[in-house]
TrEMBL record:
The keyword Nucleotide-binding does not apply. PROSITE patterns: HTH_MARR_1, HTH_MARR_2. InterPro entries: HTH_MarR-typ, MarR/SlyA-like, Tscrpt_reg_MarR-type_CS, WH-like_DNA-bd_sf, WH_DNA-bd_sf. Keywords: DNA-binding, Transcription, Transcription regulation. Pfam families: MarR_2. This is MarR family winged helix-turn-helix transcriptional regulator. Residues 1-124 form the HTH marR-type domain. The keyword Signal does not apply.
Length: 125
């Protein structure tokens, strides 16, 4: 079922020239205060670091991210969301949220509450 929903979301024309994976990186950085070490970002977006490095390279070229030395560890790199990257994430995020709402519109308020309860239970919250 997850794969079916992900395919539906991916097929929606909301991504503004981004891939779903690229959007995921922008969203994760926005949620993390706009900056994150590459290794930490890799764990959050479930991409192996070599694949994430190539994806980040593409987003840097487009001006959506920058790389900075980690101020706490000179060997590390921090990936930083630019103003353009944050604006695009918000724009695409709004359209994506509307698409998610459409997919779940068949559920009643009670069913949505039950789904949320079950997800929290699975996550141990």
């Amino acid at each position: 079922m997850q794969a079916t929903l992900l395919r539906r979301f991916s097929a929606q024309e909301v991504w503004g020239g981004l891939s779903v994976r690229e959007y995921d990186v922008l969203y994760t950085l926005a949620r993390s205060g706009g900056r994150c070490r590459l290794g930490g970002l890799s764990q959050e977006v479930y991409l192996p670091q070599p694949s994430l490095t190539r994806l980040v390279d593409r987003l840097v070229v487009r001006g959506l991210l920058t790389r900075e030395p980690d101020p706490h560890d000179g060997r590390g790199v921090v990936v930083v969301l630019t103003g353009d990257g944050a604006a695009l994430q918000r724009e695409v995020g709004g359209r994506h949220a509307a698409g998610v709402a459409r997919e779940f519109s068949a559920l009643t308020v009670e069913e949505l509450a039950e789904l949320a309860r079950l997800c929290r239970k699975v996550l141990g919250e």
